Fold these 2 entries.
Entry 1:
Amino acid sequence: MSELDSRIPNNVGLSHDRRLQRALLRWQPAFLDWWREMGPEGFQGDEVLLRTAVSVEPSGWSHFDFVRMPEYRWGIFLAPPEADRRIGFGDFAGEPVWRAVPGEFRTDLRRLIVTQGDTEPASVEQQRRLGRTAPSLYDLRNLFQVNVEEGRHLWAMVYLLHAHFGRDGREEADALLERTSGDVDRPRILQAFNEPCDDWLNFYMFTMFTDRDGKYQLMALAESAFDPLSRTTRFMLTEEAFHMSVGETGVGRIVQRTADLMAAGDDHPEENGAFDLGLLQRHINFWFAASLDLFGSEISSNAARYFASGLKGRAREKRRTDHAALDGVYRMLVADSGSLREREVPLRNAMNEVLRDDYIRDCERGVARWNRILDQAGIGERLRLPNRRFHRRIGVHADHRFDPDGNLIGEAEWEERRADWLPTEADRDVVRSRMVRVTEPGKMAHWIAAPRRGVHGRPLDYEYVRLS
Amino acid sequence: MADHDRRALMSAAPPPISFETRPGRYRHWRVEAEGPVASLTLAVDESGGLRPGYPLKLNSYDLGVDIELADAVERFRFEHPQVRCVVFRSALDRVFCSGANIFMLAGSSHGFKVNFCKFTNETRLGIEDASRHSGQRYLAALSGACAGGGYELALAADEILLIDDGASAISLPEAPLLGVLPGTGGLTRLVDKRRVRRDRADVFSTLAEGIRGRRALEWGLVDGLAPRSRFEEGVRERAAALAASAPGPPPEATGVALDDLEPEESADGVRYRHVELTFDRPARTATLLVHAPEDPFPQDADALSAVGASLWHLRMARELDDALCRLRFNEPQLGVVLLRVAGDPEAVAEADRRLFRLGKTWLARETRLRLARTLRRLDQTARSFFALAEAGERFTGTLAELLLAADRSYLCDDLDRPAGVALTEMNRGACPMGNGLSRLESRFLGDSERAAAFGPGVAFEAAEAEARGLATFAPDDLDWEDEIRVAVEERARFSPDAMTGMEASLRFAGPETLETKIFGRLSAWQNWIFQRPNAMGDRGALTTYGRPERHAFDWERT
């Protein structure tokens, strides 16, 4: 292994690719500067038990060891090529996939990659202060794992930009480090990534709901006719699964803690340092709606174009039968002159909604697991997802008010009920007041239950982060 | 022949058109070039159409007739520089010329019509160029009826003499009779060149039967009248007067024969002595590669005359011109043309310097003018031109005009041997565009200081050329291949129509001239009309012309 390959673990032949070397060696210092400045605040010198992707072998793709985050070896991995892979959908279905960017689609592909890439560093920036209030060393370590892997996903997108998009690609790669989450002048591209994520309840909700949008975007891109994009995103999905489990189990452990208290006869868990189910529901409402927005408009000519040209497909396209999607229609309920009416949209124009459907089903499975916790504790109350029309800011539902059941309501009712449905200032104060740092190995903050097991076979009271 | 047979014949893949000819092979024109007054007599061979399906009756013309005319006009300048006046005549009694053949037009594809009109416009601009720059005046001796394109040809002459026989009329019947425009500059020249009042031009252009005798003279549509009995005398007088008005021919102007280009043709391209045109049909691109001169440039005027048509600048210009015409007509699918150069850039610079040193001699001057016309043909070619220079290659002087004419340019910023641009005297207004400006002036419109700063001897390597605005992009050697592939692929996939309109709109910044008005206004409108049902639909006027059924218009105005 060359010195370069050990510094940047990869399976893209980096040590033989002069162009890529030059580009990445120029970009890497800027990335490290960004990481030091915008990465997790206050922990850059600490050793953290982190997994590092070192190959694409399913049996041993990762390696666990203590590492200081700035020394993390951010690698570049593409899922192994499929022999004779064919385009799976759209107007070019059945033709061989593209190993190089077709000139005709350069701009669209670059846009897709940049938009995806921009979310990766954005979430690191949003979460940079969370370490101060981690409820346990176990959670602190998971936060950093998510952060370094978002960093690696940035690398993955930057690799594509450098390897396939020439000078424009390099400029876009630089710009990924120049935008900053929440910055007035140069914000991140998608609005959900400009809101700070300063507490752990919001972090878990974010990884549960918003990272799951990322998963579905990656799944849609994994179908792409542009093979390097497909292979890159397929490998990213292996890491992304962990991020969602951090969110789902994180919220699950909060629910567990609340349920335990309630089962023990405590009708007001919020008065005992935990969170009540109403507050959790309001956060679910908020984060689910905000994450739905990330899929884009229900009726989209961009989505139709991306699908037609084979750039972005549907999740698990192989399981479907009609890969042209040219004749189908999608029926959706939209507000029209004061009531909800069914509207037929050409299927290709509804591809964002098709992907949103898959996402919603996936979220429902997670919520069902939380409800099982309540059920097992003998508690009758249930958590649920609001209707997809609730509190949307993008798309056909954005200009109307809906209750969490999806009923069209007036502005007055909205204002009256809003505090029941969405997190309030008081909620925020409650959440903030719970955030205290717990650093003793094996100990958990009061508002969250312990996880079932530790990381990679280590016990729960393991020192996952060696704080200096 | 029935219409559908005619159409079937013409829609079959036509054989490639050749643009080379010489007087010995003319079928439609007779040339007399003794002394200062020459004549060019239109005697169209009815059965001599370029393609079957339309007899060329009444001295009507098709592309083949105009290729011969363009050749004749060029040859007067190079082979007969002593000629001071060329008289357009007709071999037919009572008919001068009835314009472009309607059946040919009605049966041609849109692309062909557009290119046909473009070529004929360039020929007529070439006639005016000869008068303005080479002192070869043109007299249109209209001995009979002169309709449509026939009168537009006359409009390109310096003077029009009309026979006054009570019958022969001049006319522009396109709008009233065919539902199209007199698109070979007719409308523009009426008001812009002949200063015919616009209301009278309006009347004239809607009067199918045209205007005869005295009124034609009163309205300024012709310059003189002559009765049948005194027509020949009148022609002689006017021709002599025109010849006398022209500056005398340069004493050393003995003429050089324009030899045949005789390119090697193959399925993949056309190969000339200095120019190579190669096709990449799957990619829908073509490459136009121009080689630098290999022979030293002649030292003095005598040596220059001895070299004659073999002079690099002249030969290369003629080859490039031929290649562009072939691209336009024979390769309509090839949407992107890559302009490349090869050979020693110093040789180009040296050749340019010497051409300029001999600039006052007629052959050097004519050569430069020929080059300018060819580059204007490139400006008017509806293809996307990308100038590309790889490591070590340099667009120099005359060849730098190719880069400046291109829609975009890419110079490889190679670490060891960067590509580049070098300017010579040729880039300072020697080859004006149709708008009257040099390509540098058009490029840096309104910033004459900047344009002037790029004087002879200025040379830049890729990155510097990009920074100074001479090149669009300077990708480095690592990026080069992919960058070019993607840019060319992308360009080739845009709508060809959108690219044609976009390029034509971006290429000609700056002032309007007769030429820019003809191509940018008259031709653009004509090409729109050619697509409209009122001309080309089943009941369109051009379609139904000569048929029993009448046209039926959609009355809606835009």
Note: The first helix of chain B runs from residue 3 to 11.
Entry 2:
Amino acid sequence: MVRDTLRQSLASRLFWAMLALSAVCILFCASVRVTESPRLPLEPGEAPYAIPKDDAQVKSIGVEGARSEGVDVLGGDELSLGFGAFHVTTHRGRDDSVRFLQVWLAGLIAGTAGIFLAIIWTAGFLPTFLDPNHATILLAKPVPRWSLLLGKVLGVMTFVLLQTTFFVLGTWLALGISTGVYDARYLFAIPVLLLHFTVFYGFSAMLAVWTRSTVVCVFGTLLFWVICWGMNFGRHAVVAHEPPGMSTGSRFVLEVGYWTLPKPGDLNMVFDDALETRGFAASVPEFETVRQKNEINLAMSALASLLFAAAMFGIAAWEFRNAEY
Amino acid sequence: MTAAAFENVSKIYATGWSRRRGTQAVKDVTLEVPQGVVFGLLGPNRAGKTTLVKLLLALGRPTEGAVNRLGRPASDVSTLAQVGYMHENQHFPRYLTARELLRYYAALTLMKPESIPARANELLALVGLTDRADEPISRFSKGMIQRLGLAQALLNDPDLLVLDEPTEGLDLVGRALLREVIAGRKAKKKTVLLVSHVLSEVEQTCDRVAVIVNGSIVKDSSVADLVRDPKTGARRPLEDALRPLYQGGQP
């Protein structure tokens, strides 16, 4: 069943579209070059110190003047993209420039566009599989129904894992080859992205078994993602701003909703922590406040989201077991 | 042991959001399909034939009564390893080739892996698809898909072969092939349950038939008895014997 799902994936156009998108990103990474301006030598144990190129002091005494006084000047580095077609001046240096790119690749392209595409792409797999004209032949075989469903779900997840691995590993290697920076933290994106997908695919699987409709699966899952984001943000906003006049009952309902539903915002924070993205990407102020107030437990949050997915898969298996054709 | 047994079986399909309303598809059916015979299940449209087949294959559960398959309750999926099933509107994964499809279903039938390639080749030859074996199913006509459906139903050399409107989409050669297959099953003392509206096929192939009308069995007899005119004793067309039954009268 897993192998069959892999073949089904290979036969879909969206698979090739996603692979092409990954290939474009890998090519983009292969085109990156970072030219670092020379840094002043550091004494053993000395922390690097530098000021921006447009600082008033630098302007008054010049870059060389500042360097002669033992202060490095930032802004002399250059990021070259598209095999030299575009040049961007940066003050980040080689390692941080590469990390900046990695965070955007994993966060925006894979973490947002990739997850959405994967949800849309895989939403039709189960409804097609559960179509009575197809399923009745399968269900007349001596295999328990739950194992058929499990095989299909594992097949989908295996394939998303392969796509994610291709993207992350490909861009990581391409950036490494082109810049010489191999930052292993970037590889954490693979399990974190798979976790994020799994949580919402559980809901999609439940909808598929319940309705056998691809349209309901696609739009239902996307709507559900928005609702979960809203609940996640709403809870953190309330904790951060502590609005006056909010009743204990409302707060309790909010907490129940927050802990029951998957938490895409928190999963993004797990992603940020795993990749150590602080300083490379903006974060939602309410989420940061909750973190500072110590009102969030990311491990429990991720676990609760996974439990929700497990419950959805369980409901789907139960519904499929009892479904009549 | 009977190949299939229905004991006071009723089936009501729940409808509506509340699931409180229902449509009665089968009413108090008691029927036995002996082993080693070709058994025809006949009846007008929406009489309950396919519902009985689905209950037999555990694709649905009876509201009342008990269904046994090959001596075990129908809910016991282990006996499905000795069952083959083909129906009229089969949708197969279009991304598979005919050969891949047979291997896929053979694996799900829990056949020994080493026996699968040879069996797949044998059945592809039987249904005349050897030269198209490695083409994707998306290029197949309805008739070719029906042939492939027949091949998948025969993968495990089933003790009970269930054919629900198998001639749909088959040309003359395909129908002749189907008759040969059914005759072959009978020669091997295997059971065939045939649901069909094509009376000539039924008359040529079946030993016994049951007629279901409005969810109830109104006749269960040998084909020879059914086509014998009760008044004159002369042989009559099967259609003449069935018409009054379908209309709710006596033969």
Note: The CA atoms of residues 170 and 176 of chain B lie 9 Å apart.
